[in-house]
Description:
CATH topology: Chorismate Mutase Domain, subunit A
Number of helices: 3
Amino acid sequence: xxxxxxxLERLRASIDNMDAILLHTLxxxxxxxxxxxxxxxxxxMPPADKARESRQxxxxxxxxxxxxxxPAFAEKFLNFIVAEVIRHHEKxxxxx
Length: 96
């Protein structure tokens, strides 16, 4: 039988692993969106794509619901990421 402190440490170690996975996944995602930003800049495409953003929000809200995660949180999370991606795209565009 384990103690509550042992259980807490085990759970926290798993959380730490998940945090690392999230950060590495975000880094890979941003590498891809940087490539998208270069492609958009080279082809005079706007940094933002509201139609795609809307589709992605709908998709992630659905996935969140299926996964037991609050869809509103999923939308806020995506909006945060998209804002950062657009900022990167605008920076790429201005340096081209």
